[in-house]
Amino acid sequence: MADDKMEKAAMDKMVQETEMEEPGLFEQLVQPCMAELVGTAFFVLMGCLCVIESAQEGHTLQAALVHGLALAVVIGCMVEISGSHFNPSFTIAVFLSGGLELKMVLPYLISQVSGGLLGAVMAKGMTSSEKYAQAQGAAFTVLQADDHIMKALFAEAAMTCLATLAVLLSAVNGKSKNHMFPFLVGCTVMVNVLAGANVSGACLNPVRALGPAVLTNYWTHHWIYWVGPITGGLIAAALVRLFLGDNDTRVVMK
Questions:
Q1: N or C: the chain end with fewer CB closer than 10 Å?
Q2: How confident is the model at residue 54 (pLDDT cuts 50, 70, 90)?
Q3: What is the average pLDDT across 160-178?
């Protein structure tokens, strides 16, 4: 009888400890979404400020460094809270690769869009009206000729595919996970901006394009910055699921 009581007490203690260790609604939903909103807002803020303040000089190197380093910083700060997506293309690809639950996809997307708008608003509040107007609020204006559209679309898809592969292989895929994930993703963004800024603007992120577009009402060829990055993310997810992922991630030839 004494043994039964001790065993029951031990089981009750284990149940209580398990319940205490399980994260609540705040840590499961609210905190990750706030991290996505705040991280996206500061990433877009830094990117927009850079473009607005250097619009006349057209410093591609400066834009590459600011976007890449800002992303590395916010990823490093928020990765243990939300996974540090800050990009709808990344979120969709991570979900398709098994790194995110379906119930979190829509909240993440809403948080990222909200963060992109907030970042653009903050950038407008920090810059002069003259410089803001000259840079169209950091909206992507590189696409003017219609015969350049398909090349820019291809560029956005290819460059986002590379950036998404960096995310999936260094943060989601078990075999290739790397503690230098923030640095790798940040460097990938830098390389893409340096290589493709004059082709498409090297946006790679729909919400980075959305915030400035909303505030300046500049929508010329804006759809490219949604279709291109999301397509690139889908291709990256397919590559990981079919060929590059480990046995837990890959869905064929296990």
A1: N
A2: confident
A3: 97
Among residues 246, 223, 214, 229, the alpha carbon closest in space to that of 97 is found at 246
Looking at the whole model, is its pTM more than 0.70?
yes
Mean pLDDT of 214-227: 97
Architecture of domain 27-244: Up-down Bundle (1.20)
Per residue, the 3-state secondary structure of the chain, as one string, reads: CHHHHHHHHHHHHHHHHHHHHCCCHHHHHHHHHHHHHHHHHHHHHHHHHHHHHCCCCCCHHHHHHHHHHHHHHHHHHHHHHHCCCCCHHHHHHHHHCCCCCHHHHHHHHHHHHHHHHHHHHHHHHHCCHHHHHHCHHHCCCCCCCHHHHHHHHHHHHHHHHHHHHHHHHHHHCHHHCCCCHHHHHHHHHHHHHHHHCCCCCCCCCHHHHHHHHHHHCCCCCCCHHHHHHHHHHHHHHHHHHHHHCCCCCCCCCC
